[in-house]
Amino acid sequence: MNNLILNILIYIHFDKERVNNQLLKEIVNYAESSKIVVISTQKVTLGAPSVMKAEFDLLELAYKSSNYKNFHLISGQDLALKTAKKYMFF
Q: Which of 18, 44, 55, 66 lies 20 to 30 Å (CA to CA) from residue 77?
């Protein structure tokens, strides 16, 4: 387990009306060894079908552009309480 090299891809969907270049730079710089892919396909309205459409777009991109079989979908109010190594077991 100590030799496990984490190769995690992080896919983020930002609301089309809220995304800005400074925020994107900060997020990409924060990741140490992970690759971050950011998409912004549409304006997302809480409780509307646009939420599911954005999630579908994100999962579709992740599925088509990687060899992963499992994905963790978390939203803006979620907080990952475990280290990245814990997620590698799924």
A: 66
Residue pLDDT, tens place only, 30-79: 766 667 788 888 888 888 999 899 889 999 998 998 888 888 787 766 66
Angstrom distance (rounded) from CA 85 to CA 79: 16
Q: Is residue 45 part of a domain?
A: yes
Smallest Cα–Cα separation from 52: which of 73, 23, 25?
73
| C-alpha torsion 55→8→84→24, nearest 10 | -60
The verdict on residue 81 lying in a domain is no
CA distance 54 to 82: 25
* Range(s) of the domain holding residue 21: 9-69
Q: Number of structural domains, the chain?
A: 1
